Description:
By secondary structure, this protein is mainly α. The protein has one domain: Orthogonal Bundle (UraD-like). The chain contains eight helices and no strands. α2 packs across α3 and α6 runs parallel beside α7 (103-113). The longest helix has 21 residues, at 118-138.
Amino acid sequence: MTTIEEALEGSTPLAMKVRALGPYRSANEMIDQMRATLPTLSEEEKVATLNAHPRIGEDPGRLSARSLAEQGSDSLPELERLNAEYERRFGFRFVVFVNRRPKAEIVEVLGQRLRRSREQEIEEGLRAIVDIAADRLKA
């Protein structure tokens, strides 16, 4: 079974809080606790949780095996440029549940999300973190 840390890309503030509230009888119970814990995170903890996730389109040599399988290994310069712009604008990483979608589609999503507020993006990114974890825990 996938561990909390594997599902959440390491010992993030979210992972540590969820682990401390366990044990869990099922993946669904753990996922529910992740969602319930998100609002208790400080701004700093939220940003640290988002920044623990690998960049979409990251150098394949720097991705975990799980992230590489989810994202694929093809590179897209536009994605790299938009990732950098996103991080400059918001101060944390862009996180989206790729769910095996092509990178060209992710570029469109990233472009749309650059027009949103920082608060909207923190919340959207954290929801994506939990959606990714849920997919990993149910695999």
